[in-house]
Amino acid sequence: ETGVTQSPTHLIKTRGQQVTLRCSSQSGHNTVSWYQQALGQGPQFIFQYYREEENGRGNFPPRFSGLQFPNYSSELNVNALELDDSALYLCASTRSSGEETQYFGPGTRLLVL
Amino acid sequence: QKEVEQNSGPLSVPEGAIASLNCTYSDRGSQSFFWYRQYSGKSPELIMFIYSNGDKEDGRFTAQLNKASQYVSLLIRDSQPSDSATYLCAVILNQAGTALIFGKGTTLSVSS
C-alpha cells in the first residue's frame, strides 16, 4: 500500500457529461500528478500540482482541469466527456516537486457510454 | 516528442529462469529511470529506479542503464509465477515538474 487513495473506484458516465475524480496523497507528500491509462497502453501524463499550483501539463485539452487543496489532496475534472476518455485514471504523489519517485493510488476506472 | 519504447511481448519464461526486459528512450538528456510492475486491473507499483550508468541490484531485480546507448533494462532472476505482470519503463520529463513518460509496457508470463 502506498498511502495514496482515490475515489470512486469505478464510474460510468455518458458522453457529454462531466466527472470529478478525487485523490488523497500520501502523508507528507505535497506534489500530485494525474495520469490516464487506456487499455493496453502505458499511463499518459495529464498534469501535476505542487502546493496548489499547476506545475506542468501533458498533451491534454483544456476540458481536463484540476485542483489541489491546502491539505494536498487533489481533484481531476473532465468536462464534455468523450468515448475515448474511458480509461483508468491514476493519481501519484511525490514528497516534493524536487523528488522524483512517484507512488500511485489504486486508480479510478471510468467508462463513458 | 519524447518517447519510451518497450517490446510489448508477451515474454514467456519458465519458473527459475532469468527474465530480461528492455527499454529505449529518445531524450538524451533524461537523467532518471524507473521500472514499475502492474498486475492486471491494478495500478503501477514501483520496483526500482536508477540514475547512474551501470547496474543497480535489489533482491532478485537488477536494473541496468547505458546512457550512451539510451537503453535501460530490468533483469529478474529466479523468475516466479507471481512475477507475471506488465512491466512499465518510465523516464522523467524534466520540462513538466517531475512528470513520468511511460512506455507501453512488456507483458511477462512465468510458467511453473
The gyration radius over C-alpha positions of chain B equals 13 Å
Strand count of chain A: 11
How large is the share of residues in beta strands of chain B?
over 45%
The protein's oligomeric status is heterodimer
Radius of gyration of chain A, CA atoms, in whole angstroms: 13 Å
Give helix % range of chain A: under 10%
Q: What's the end-to-end separation of chain A, in Å?
A: 32 Å
Describe this structure in words.
The complex is a heterodimer of chains A (about 110) and B (about 110). Chain A contains no helices and eleven strands. Chain A has strands spanning about 5, 10-15, 20-25, 30-35, 45-50, 55, 65-70, 75-80, 85-95, 105, 110. Helices cover about 0% and strands about 50% of the residues of chain A. Chain A is globular and about 40 Å long. Chain B starts with a strand and ends with a strand. Chain B has strands spanning about 5, 10-15, 20-25, 35-40, 45-50, 55-60, 60-65, 70-75, 85-95, 100, 105-110. Classes of the chains: A mainly beta (about 110), B mainly beta (about 110). The interface of A and B includes residues 44, 57, 88, 104 and 107 of A.
In short:
The complex is a heterodimer of chains A (113) and B (112). With 113 residues, chain A is mostly beta strands.
Structural features:
heterodimer; A: mainly beta; globular; B: mainly beta; five-stranded antiparallel sheet; 11 strands
SSE topology sketch:
The complex is a heterodimer of chains A (113) and B (112).
Chain A: E1 5-7, E2 10-13, E3 19-24, E4 31-37, E5 44-50, E6 53-57, E7 64-68, E8 74-78, E9 87-94, E10 103-104, E11 108-112
Parallel strand pairs in A: 2-11
Antiparallel strand pairs in A: 1-3, 3-8, 4-5, 4-9, 5-6, 7-8, 9-10, 9-11
Chain B: E1 4-6, E2 11-14, E3 19-25, E4 33-38, E5 45-50, E6 54-58, E7 61-66, E8 71-76, E9 85-93, E10 99-102, E11 106-111
Parallel strand pairs in B: 2-11
Antiparallel strand pairs in B: 1-3, 3-8, 4-5, 4-9, 6-7, 7-8, 9-10, 9-11
